[in-house]
Amino acid sequence: MLRFILARLGGTVAVLALVAVMVFALTRLASGDPIAVLLGDQASVEDIAQARAQYGLDEPLPTQFGYWIREVLRGNLGQSIFLQRPVTQALAERTEPTFFLALFAVSIAALIGVPCGLIAAVWRGRAADQVFSAVAMLGASVPSFWMGLVLIQIFAVGLGWFPASGYGNPGVSLPERLHHLVLPAIVLGVLNSALIIRFTRASVLDILNEDYVRTARSKGLSERAVILGHVLRNALVPIVTVVGLTLALMIGGAVVTETVFNLPGVGNLVVRAVLRRDYPVIQGALLVIAGIYVLINLAIDLIYMLVDPRIRV
Amino acid sequence: MERLTYVLRRLFARRVVLVAALLLLAVVALAIFFPLFSGVDPNAISVMDRLKAPSADHWAGTDELGRDLAMRIVWGGRYSIMIGIATALFSVIAGTTLGLLAGFFRRLDGPIMRVVDAMMSFPDILLGISLVSILGASLWNVVFALAIVYTPRVARVVRASTLVIRELLFVDAARALGVSTPRVLYAHILPNLFSPVLVQLTFIFAYAILAEAGLSFLGVGVPPEIPTWGTMISSSLQYADRAFWTILFPGVAIILTALSLQIVGDGVRDMLDPKLRKSA
Fold first, then answer.
1. Is B62 helix (H, G, I), strand (E, B) or coil?
2. Interval B155-180 mean pLDDT
């Protein structure tokens, strides 16, 4: 058991190290010079050289990487070139909208995905299955920004039920904030429910073929008790995984939705940083987002090892 | 030939798959041939016809420069479909190579799959915008960036299949007969990867069309003068309130194409997977 956990931890450290190398390489391979952009056309050669030295951009790449990693491990992601403040602070300021949006959206996705997937599997091949499977495929075919624009047109511009964009003025109450998040959460939730429908259906179908399901039926349990007590319970392990991973992906993957609704979240921060070539912000955000994903993955695996003895073998 | 008709008949036994395949064929044929024969310039500007609602003259209305939207959707399909196919092909080639090596050679498995894991821990669209911003926004850079994004996905699928195939008897037999390792890979394992890879190809084709539109929307995609379905929507964004058709119809084109691709991919998978076949 301990050996398994250690091996899994070792793998995670390796992946995290690779993520760090990729993030660093990614931003350093870029062609545009952020200093030139920052200082504008009027800057003299000396000014640029001085600014480059100030941000450590004149050192050789391996040195820069070593320096960067050391600081990252101390919890310092560097200074944003454009926002004039530490990257960690910029990220922290943007966490709240993204966090609430992801939570709100994943609840919608699970509330749609799990029941639809379950029904599709239980009534396999019948009309409900075909409808839900078609809906799942449709969900994976709609561009999120397009759905966002359509919803804004109908519910914000047309009916005026929800605000079209933003996160409210600073200091407004939580319900007011959530009101701003309804449309973006519907977009993210509905589109991501597609994956959960498919996954739930597949997991439930697998379990319906198990011997213990036949046993449960033959001892005279009602179909309802079989499905809810035996099938769904056992299918929950993979379903919880996919819901957890969906949440992890939403934290960084809501870029487009956040941009459509102009939400001041992490995704929005990254898009702006990319457009301005603000390397420290891009680096820091990519590292944190990928790191969260890797760690959530690890947490899910470890919890299973503790809960389900079969996985240990 | 007989085998092909058999396969096609099985595939199209489900009516939806047939409809999706026909729709796809129509979209591709229109995109390839219509611009060749129509002789109309999709970039012809007509200021008098700015932002006209859909009518008999302009089936899908006109955009902010008075260009006929229906024409431009057909024309834009050329680029969107090309981006989709090119991305799918590149990522399938790279992903199959990596997955085959990782699945066949024990020693390469660890390193290759750790890199794949690391790449997959970035959300698709985030990795996409970062890569495009580094490479610079051009049509081929978008294809290249998206191919990098989807390569790990293919590598995982191919590795899993290779692990199964390498244990099969005919691989042992080939080795026992003294067939060289490259030839075992090429002649014995690769052909058996055809079906899972084909399924991935159709899905990545669909995802790439969607991702291209997303990148264009964020302002880091294909340059706006190239009419893809994505750039059409993003260049009309500011007119959304007045002329919603400029956003509605290119979006519908994206959805129909992506949906058809996924239905066909799903059909292929159902047909090839004996487990699903039995239960259907």
1. strand
2. 88
**B79 contacts B139 by C-beta, under 8 angstroms:** yes
- Tell me the chain B residues in contact with residue A105 when contact means C-beta distances shorter than 8 Å: none
> Between A and B, how many residue pairs show a Cβ–Cβ distance under 8 A?
134
Q: Is A201 on the interface with B (CB under 8 A)?
A: no
Contact B232, B250 (CB under 8 A): yes
User: What six digits make up the tokens of B77?
Assistant: 């399909």
Is domain A87-312 in CATH 3.50.50.60, yes or no? Answer: no
> What was the pLDDT predicted at B278?
43
Q: What is the ipTM of this complex?
A: 0.81
- Res. B59: pLDDT tops 70: no
Distance from the B280 Cα atom to the nearest Cα atom in chain A, whole angstroms = 6
Query: Mean pLDDT, to the nearest integer, of B18-26?
Result: 86
Domain ranges of chain A: 87-312
User: Mean pLDDT across the stretch B22-27?
Assistant: 87
Mean pLDDT of chain A: 81
Distance CA B143, CA B154 (A): 16
Average pLDDT of the segment spanning B172-184: 86
- Residues found in chain B: 280
Residues of chain A with pLDDT under 50: 313
Task: List b or e across B87-106, with b for residues whose CB sees 16 or more CB atoms inside 10 angstroms.
Answer: bbebbbebbbebbbbbbbee
Model confidence over A244-273: pLDDT tens digits? 888 888 877 788 888 888 888 888 888 888
- In this complex, do A137 and B259 lie within 8 Å of one another by their Cβ atoms? yes
What does the alpha-carbon distance between residue B224 and residue B43 come to, in Å, rounded to a whole number? 12
With an 8 Å Cβ cutoff, is B17 touching chain A? no
Could you give the CA distance from residue A122 to residue A132 in angstroms, rounded to a whole number?
Answer: 12
Tell me the chain B residues in contact with residue A31 when contact means C-beta distances shorter than 8 Å: 134, 136
Tell whether the model's pLDDT for residue B150 goes beyond 60. yes
Q: Do A293 and B121 touch (CB under 8 A)?
A: yes
* CA B84 – CA B81 distance, rounded (Å): 5
Say whether residue A257 is in contact with chain B using an 8 A CB cutoff. no
pLDDT at residue B254 above 80? yes
Residue of A nearest to B257 (CA): A141
Using CB atoms, pick whichever of B115, B214, B262 lies closest to residue A256.
B214
- The larger pLDDT score, comparing residue B272 to residue A192, is at A192
Q: Compare all CA atoms of chain B with the CA of A124 and give the residue at the minimum distance.
A: B280
**B255 vs A29, A141, A252: nearest CB:** A141
CB-based contact, B219 to chain A, within 8 Å? yes
